[in-house]
Amino acid sequence: MMPGQMGNFFLYRFGINQDGSYSVILAPGDYYIQTGSDGYYIREYWAAAASDTDCSNAESINVSAGVNNSGKDFQLELGGAISGTLYQTDGTTPITGDNLLGVTAFAGDSCISGNWQWAGHGPVNPDDGTYTIGGLPPGEYIVENSSDSNYILEWYANPSSTRDCSQGTIITVSASQTEAGKDFPGQGDSKQTPGG
User: Using CA atoms, how far apart are residues 35 and 29, in angstroms rounded to an integer?
Assistant: First the structure.
């Protein structure tokens, strides 16, 4: 789970217990809480009536010293996931190391409409170049890699990744399913190479 304060935004990350409960100690203030998932559960914000995927429906929680704010429950729904591997230009050698930030999913036709709708992010495993973006609501997505090194940013496309967002392949996600094999550069004939 990830609580944050909207406006001057910052994050705390904390886990949940086996029975689904959670707790965190925070400094006094107002907070918004959002769930996070590496699996299928959709990220939602806390609200008194019911948790919601839309941050505009989130409700703040006032934290006071010595006061236990219990009963801040979530009602999570199952979504889906996207997974794959980032490869070098030969299409078979995974890109490894700590210089890869991850892969990000955007909803719908964000590239064409210019209305960027961030949907989820998955870190890249530095040991084997694999990634998973979990907790995505059923729907259509385009996916982009990111890096803090000199690798070129690319969009997933079939059969090979592309630097042109409008040429990215739309991935359809269903509940409780993983759309696997969404690899960069796909079949090895694109430009997942150092950028200079």
Answer: 19
Q: Give 110's contacts (C-beta < 8 A, 6+ positions apart).
A: 116, 117, 142
Q: Classify domain 80-179 at the CATH superfamily level.
A: Carboxypeptidase-like, regulatory domain (2.60.40.1120)
Block mean pLDDT (10 aa), the chain, length 196: 47 82 89 83 92 90 92 92 89 80 83 79 91 93 82 86 89 94 64 42
Residue 4 pLDDT: 44
3-state SS, one letter per residue, for the chain: CEEECCCCCCECCCCCCCCCCCCCCCCCEEEEEECCCCCCECCCECCCCCCECCHHHCCCEEECCCCCCCCCCCCCCECEEEEEEEECCCCCCECCCCCEEEEEEEECCHHHHCCCCEEEEECECCCCCEEEEEEECCEEEEEEEEECCCECCCECCCCCCECCHHHCCCEEECCCCEECCCCECCCCCCCCCECC
Q: Return the pLDDT at 140.
A: 93
Instruction: Map out the domains of the chain as residue ranges.
Output: 1-77, 80-179
Q: Which pTM does this prediction carry?
A: 0.77
